[in-house]
Structures are given as structure tokens and as C-alpha cells.
Amino acid sequence: MKIKLRTEHLIFLLSLSINIIITILSSNSLMWDENVYLANAKHVLGITPYFEHFRFPLLWWNIALLIPLIKENYLLVRIYLSIIFSVSTVFFYRILLKTLKEDWKAIIFTLLIILNGLMIIYSNRIYPDVYGMSFLIISIYSFHNYLESKRERDFIFFILFSILSFLAKYPYGLFLLSSWIFVDRKEKMRSIAYSILFLTPFFLYNLLLYKNPIKILLDQFYLAYLWQTKEPISLFFENALRYLGILIFSVFFIPIKDGKFERSIYLFTLLSFIYFAFLTPQKDPRYLIQILPTSIIIFGINTEKLKGFELLIYILLSFSMIYSTINGIFDTTNINLCYGELSSAYQSVQFLKKENATKVLSNAFWVWYGNLLNIESYSIYNNSLDYFVEKYDPDFIVYSKNYGISVELNLSRYRKVFEYMDFCGIDVKIYRVR
After folding, report:
1. What's the rounded Cα separation, in Å, for the pair 376 and 397?
2. Vertex 123: Cα angle to 117 and 128 (nearest 5)
3. pTM above 0.90, yes or no
4. Of the N and C termini of the chain, which has fewer Cβ atoms inside 10 Å?
5. How far apart are CA 160 and CA 154, in angstroms?
6. What φ, ψ does residue 230 adopt, rounded to 5°?
């Protein structure tokens, strides 16, 4: 029996193949937040004491369901998340096919998301950004279907996947707000009812553990702002040009006479743009992931209105995609070098493992120790070393001069037992306390 491959199958296979190759080539590197989400999942299963309660919940709830099946095989977690993203690219293609009407255009604009540099870096990583974006894409697809058909099933899926994207990363909730503004009164009431229904597990979780239905939501915003380094707005635009290129100009395509769908995704894009550019202190390029899919859709829709300039636009989009992909490959290579087996983080993990460490203080790599060693691990977040030693009674102190939290520590009373500097110039020194 011959299986006929459709365009959707080819898109899925292309996306998944790229991500599996990248995952295999970078199998021994974990970035900061990957350790945290893995540790959170293992904490609820009683595997590690390390836990950061305020993290966006859906990702580590999901991983907690996987670990009993795959144990601590992080490679499989990354492949699992790559599959979710690859499925979402099929829905993204369907959205573009509905809005652009022509298959070749839908394929080209789908490639803009698959080959984007941010996807090269993060779609195979244990981060909530692409995970949440994948649910957002399915929600947008369902919203478009609902506006066409008015089927209740599509409306339910639209709300459900909006809530899932919100629980994956709270700023994605801007899409539910943006679409809510443009629906009629009865639809507004139904969307509120369904949202409350789908958020019930989240509310109950917070009530049972913290006596406040939105405790971790509040703590996420408070702690994220507390610990984020304030960076210049110019860095946001620099990152946007590197990874979005000409797509960043989608915010200028104001849909004055367009329908509810166009106005909803435009408002979402504009609000996200304002939030990350002007209201978020840190300008991490991965925040642009939230803007990426709707920017592509908006640009695709508006190419239809720019007759006579289409060739120029496609040339600029091609250059943007190539430049973004190259940046993604370069940054992925750098991540593998700085967080792989030869990194200071992993070398210190191996030393502490050999020494059977049980409790560690660090200004730099505590999340690696909490996750990879399944031990108590605490951050040194100011210069009061004596306070931390007295409070936690660690057996080792790990200090880095040029990574993590910048602190000045007097370690003269402790014996240095390990020192290493990796290819990225990140240093680590380990001191024995007892």
C-alpha cells in the first residue's frame, strides 16, 4: 500500500527532522531554565528537593507526567517538545492556506517560522516559549475556523488552547484578551465561562498549596521583575532585526477595514510588542517568539495588498529568513559550547557528583546541581556569605566571578578543591565547607 505524502506531512517531517538533528547534536547541553523546569517536574515526584514554585506551570506539569515513563532521559523530553512544535507548524500552514488562498504562498510563509533562528535555538529546548507558541497557533487556527463556521466546537478549542498557551507562559494570555475585544456580547460571556472552567485546575492548585487562587501568577511577575536586569530598549530592536528582520514592520499594517480575525491578531502583536519592548526590563531575544507567528500571518495577508511590490517583499523576506537562520545556527553552536560537557557548569557537576555532595551554595550554577544531582542547592544572591553558610550548612560553595549573580565573597577560610575555566571564559571555583 502506497502512502501519498501531502504538503502537511512534508511540513511536519521537515520541522521534526531539523529539530531532531539539532537535539542529537546538542544532547549534552542544558540551559539555565531547562534545569529549573526539569527540577520542578522531578520535585513533585519526590526525586529532587530543588523547586521554584513561581515558574509557568504547564510545562513542568506536563514533564512530570512524562518522567515516570522515560525516567531522566532529557533527550526524549526535548524530542517530545519538538513534536508538539512540528504539529503546530501544520496548523500554521492551514491558517496561511485559509488566509493567503494559494498553496505556494502558504508554504513559503510556513518556512519563515520553521527556519527562523529563534526556532533553531528554542523549539527543541525545554523552555515554555515555543511550547506556549505552539498552543497559541492552534488557538488562532480554531478562532479563524469559528469565525467562519460559528461551530461551538471551534469556539471551545479556541478558548482551550488559549488557556493552555497562557498556562505555558502568561503573556500569551494577551491573545485571549485581544480576541475577546472583537467578539460580540454573548461570545464574551461564553469565553469567560469556558476560561474559568479550563483554569479551574490552576486555581485549585494555587488554593490547595498557597491559599490564593493566583499565587504563582503574582509571584512570577514579582520575582521575574525583581531578578531581571534592566536592559536598553535599543537591545529589543537589535534582537528584532536579527531574528524577525522585515517581519517587525508588521505592527505598521493597521487593519482598519479588515475583519475580526485580522484585528485580533494585530492587536495581540501590537500589545506583545509594547509589553516586551517597553514594559519588560530584560530584552531576551526569545521573548520575540511570542510575536513571530502573528507577524508572519499579518505580513502574509498584507502582501496581497501591495501589488507591484511583491517581488521586493519576497526578496526582503528571504534575506530576513537567511539572516535569522544563520544567527540561530551561530547561537546554537555557542550554547552547545558554553553549556556542553566541557563547560564550567558541567565540569563542576561532575566534580560534585564524584565528591557525593549533598548541599551546595552557589552564585552561578545552583540550578544545574539541583536538577542533575538531585540535591539541595541554594543561590548566593548577596555578599552575606556567613548568613547563607549558617542558614543552609552546605558541604560545598561554588563561586564564579563572571557568571550568575555578581557578588563579592570572602572565601579565605575555606579550602579550594576545584578550579576550571571553559572555552567561553566562564570560570568556576569550588570550596569545601565540611
Report:
1. 12
2. 120
3. yes
4. N
5. 10
6. -75, 120
DSSP E strand stretches across 252-364: 359-362
The C-alpha atoms of residue 417 and residue 426 are separated, in whole angstroms, by 17
Boundaries of every domain in the chain: 7-339, 344-432
d(CA 37, CA 57): 9
Q: Which of 126, 125, 103 is nearest to 42 (CA)?
A: 126
Q: Which DSSP letter does residue 229 get?
A: P
| Inter-CA distances, 106 with 82, 101, 224, 296, 349, Å | 21, 8, 37, 10, 46
Torsions phi, psi of 420, nearest 5?
-160, 145
Closest CA to 431 of 360, 364, 347: 360
Return the closest-CA partner of residue 365 out of 6, 30, 12: 30
Amino acid at 156: I
C-alpha cell of 109?
Answer: 510563509
User: What mean pLDDT do residues 377-384 have?
Assistant: 96
pLDDT in tens, 257-269: 779 999 999 999 9
